[in-house]
């Protein structure tokens, strides 16, 4: 058996044997005598009495040495104690400083501080204490010795000043008295501020030092003279021995429920035995037993380790010394004599222990010196050296102090907890008030511990055990357990290895019992976890997590059965709560309403949220009430809710009504929230109910409602908009770019974003249904955008076509006056062109379209059309994508050539009207003024269900009279001819004269989100383009005028001067070349001057536009004008592309140089580089250097080559193009990409009639579904134009060479053959790809 086991078995047997003998009366007896001893040892009151007659001064020869000896003993005692308990509190110095200030200012109430010499001494010390450095030093060290030394020095210097010639031996006793008064003031400051209880050792030391300093001057006389008040403190008052003067005895009477008269009788009977001397002898005997390892004090076997015993003994020895010293100092004269006598046996005790006596000579305990524990112990050891087992009885220490002390604790708890007015204990670390002991009970327990020598850790363990027992008996609550643990942790450190074996084992037992009891109470609390007002478990968890689990003495074992039992109980309670919710439903089916289900679902969710807030983490890290509630209640509620909703729908149908859409959607929101919470908690489980199965139809109805409102939203927003920028008027400043749109564009997108946000927030869980909903919503959005574009463009066109003042004047003229004006205009050679006054309202509408493009792009990103299309593709079989009920044909009217001149000026003002076979107008182009080879480049979408015939009629616009027809042609839109989804360019001969070039492409009209977004974007961009074109059309007439052949002639004629007649001669003789000697160099100034009117005209119009247009819109207008400049210069040099010879004659070298110089000048003008900063502020460089610009530049290389050379170069390029085409046909088919089946299949290569390059399907709706795809398509187009050289320009030059007519026809047939082959291959590729999509990839 181990040593520790032997210790525990021995101690347990002794404890069991002694505990049987202890009764409440025994505990009362020892508590009473201890309280009585506290009364005996209390300082007695000394009242002021008249000052006695002067007595001769007793001179001391070595007072200074005596003071320093006392201070040395004071400091030595401090070094043997805990430094924290012997230092003054942190806030002590400021309080003491105020007390000192009251002394030297004469405001101190005590008589002894009224003397003038005392005030001067304190004033001198106050000066030192007020110094910042000294104040900081003593505040940091907190050592009382430093204050006493400095005060002693200050008092000595002050008396030296008063008595400079007097012998120091005569006034040094007065210094001791002043220092004693200072020490008394320090003690009083500690006591008055409640610090004496937390610093008992410091209080005792200061009291001892004061008594030593005053041992020769008990009356505090000033140099043996009467004080200024004529009174001094008299002798201590005698004891009354009346229990009414004994507060602690009264507390014992209350605690043990014993009347005071019985206590008085007991004290009177034992007065002769219960003396201070008996207490002193008890301590001496205890000290003897401690030193000799005898019974009557703790021994080595009482501790777990020898180190623990030695540690306790080192702490106990100085504490015991202080107690003995305090007893002796209570009555030094009598007790000093008593210590010289050998101990004698005292009657009245039932137990004996080894004697405890004090040794030492009586001469060492004389009245002239204060006794110390060391002196007493030496004397006692001399008297008892031959008696190791002396039979000395304790008077105040009970037989088993531990058990007796536990009785006292229990009685104090019973009494104090029965008092409803008990003041709360102040435990700083406790989370709430601690209701344990009153101040009187704490004082009684402190006194018992002090006199019975109960270690502090034993005291705290016993208090904790008593509270534990009461908690198990339901006489205490969790807050008491928690507060007691906090009190325990505050008073006792964590040096458990230095405890006694009994305390160690008892504390382990306490932890185990408290753990079990708290778990039982926790279970009862958690049974209310799902109620509206649950029982808080914070205190229970705090006890477990802060006091039980982390404690090193607690041996934790996971309570598996407890956790299973707790989970079972919580599941049962969750079912009860859900049943209570369901009982709120009406019993009659006619009373059922979706709102009731919504409210019920909200209650379930709120209850879950409340539970989640209550339990931030699982109980014991294992059981999560929130998870249990969700697992049990949510699926069952969902099942019940489904049945209720289906029943509600059935009831509505029986009434011939339909469930309100808003109610159904609100119902889905709440039910889906329940499912979301469940899925978050149990992601690996499947929720038992799909709410989408019976609520999807109501979302479709909601979409139908939105569809019916969208046109009204758009019309209402436009109606409320006056299209005016009011910032200039209201704020007096120029608007920024982001402020140049008006309210309609903002209001429309606010309205369009609402259904998108609503559908997003709905979080529909069936992704296929959700994708279909967003597809339908995309169609609605496209409908609203198209409406906005149509209305805005009509308003824009109306405002742009408003007649000017001159036109209004012409409208009032008679028919004859109109003809005269037209004749004059026709014969006039000068045209005065004024800048067009663009209305701000027109420009704002273009800004609105630009803003709409940006906002719709954000809307498309919010919807994420690509992700929705991929979901549709994942769930829809491939064969369902093939059927297309309707088709979208895009007809682009590009240009016309060789039109008939209908005006007297030799020109026409052509425009094109598209109509169907029923003569219904479908589309109309703009008017191109004074041109027989006009370019429109306008596109129109035509939706058909099958084959349709279109009629394209070219009209000449006339100001007066009916418009003249320039020719008609028919266009067949046959879906079967465009199943390759490739664009086709067609030259259509007009029935009167000339021909018309159109480009036709087709794609299926599908219910596809990408298609709808693409269509809306195309409408926006087309509206933007058409508005921009209408602006540029107002300026294009002057461009054609300034960059015409007549302008070329004017430049040359100005330079040649007198040679004009010779030039006319050459022209009449139809000579193709002029003599080189006649060529005259044309100056740069003349060339620039020819287009200066054009640039000035541009600048005037740009200044007007820049006031309203945004920078982006302004750049767009300038880009369109630049393109118009390029087209105009191109028409000067070459005819349009065709397989027939042209009547246009080529320019001379001189004219060509002028054209290219104009090109460079216009390039620099539109680039607009700032001369100071060097920064370009006009059209971007990549726009300026467009493919058409490069084509125009390429004319410089081929324009004057011979026809044979041009034909060879064209054949070379054709061969390269044919070889590239053959290689593309022989290459293996790429794997079918995993994309949306509704998206168009990649087109095959197509060699157009217009040239040798392959035309891709650039105008596909899906290529314009957002800004990103549109920018990417533009970049791809630019790269293709640069990577694939074309012989178009060569063929256009050859049209002006009659000898190349045969080659043009042959080249046209070659292209037609390649076109047919490309179309056939495209159809094959499409079929193969479609087959791969249905059957999987080919192996």
UniProtKB/TrEMBL annotation:
Residues 865-988 form the C2 domain. Residues 218-240, 335-369, 1220-1244, 1265-1287 are annotated as: Disordered. Residues 665-792 form the MHD1 domain. Pfam families: C2, MUN. Residues 352-369 have a biased composition (Low complexity). Residues 1272-1282 have a biased composition (Basic and acidic residues). This is C2 domain-containing protein. It comes from Ascodesmis nigricans. The lineage of its organism: Eukaryota, Fungi, Dikarya, Ascomycota, Pezizomycotina.
